[in-house]
Design brief:
Blueprint: H1 11-19, E1 26-29, E2 32-34, H2 44-72, E3 75-80, H3 93-112, E4 118-123, H4 131-135, H5 152-165, E5 169-170, H6 174-180, H7 182-185, H8 188-202, E6 210-213, E7 216-219
Parallel strand pairs: 1-3, 3-4, 4-5
Antiparallel strand pairs: 1-7, 2-6
Helix pairs in contact: 1-2, 2-3
């Protein structure tokens, strides 16, 4: 059992050094947390930790594990992004931007890995009933999101099945699929304004970091 803080810049190397002699067939990057508040006012240490976790660690660990998968002509990678990846998110600017990076990164390398036996899937769920939703604000009572709230087990099962099928972008829920395409129907300026109003309605005061899943799953068993 390995315990390490994945928001540290060198954490991918720490994890990989511990498992480099194991043949990894499946990598699930499901770590993340969110910070609510104005970019100009938020704490930079918290923000940089989030960026390290969402971008640096996931990208580096994917690269390290990918080498062996390509050599063996098999492997599956599941990156957990968010519905937030499809539009800008005022009051959670870096969270939305980092999830957008993860979506773009996953789609790009999925294309590069065609015909290699290795697939990449990016899961983009909407609001899901986890501790993320409860403590992204200072108190859970500040968060009034209840509509379209998904079951975490159902979201995990959806992502797992999509990964097995080799699907590139997996968005659970018909309504979430509609929301993902909303910026194409409206202007990006309009959708950004809508997100701002939703954020201000659901959280009435700034928050501290919400850490809900600082982990990574590496599966040895063939799938």
């Amino acid at each position: 059992m390995l315990s390490t803080d994945l928001s540290n810049v060198d954490s991918a190397e720490v994890v990989f050094d511990a498992i480099k002699n194991i043949k990894i067939d499946v990598l699930v990057n499901c770590a993340g947390f969110g910070i609510y508040g104005s970019f100009a006012e938020n704490n930079w240490q918290q923000e940089s930790s989030m960026l390290n976790l969402h971008i640096i660690t996931i990208t580096h660990l994917t690269k390290l594990v990918l080498q062996g998968m390509i050599e063996r002509d098999r492997g599956k990678i599941l990156n957990v992004s968010s519905l937030a990846a499809f539009q800008p998110g005022p009051m959670m600017a870096l969270y939305y931007a980092s999830k957008s990076y993860l979506l773009s990164f996953s789609e790009a390398i999925a294309n590069e890995l065609k015909d290699t036996g290795v697939s990449v899937t990016v899961l983009c769920p909407g609001p899901t009933k986890t501790c993320f939703q409860e403590v992204v604000s200072n108190t859970s009572s500040d968060n009034k999101i209840s509509f379209n709230m998904a079951c975490p087990k159902a979201v995990a099962a959806y992502g797992y099945k999509a990964m097995l099928k080799g699907k590139v972008v997996a968005i659970p829920g018909v309504f979430n699929k509609f929301l993902a395409n909303l910026p194409r129907l409206l202007t990006r300026k309009r959708t950004t304004s809508i997100v701002r109003k939703i954020q201000e309605k659901n959280r009435t005061e700034p928050s501290n970091t919400c850490v809900f899943e600082k982990d990574v799953v590496l599966i040895k068993k063939n799938v």
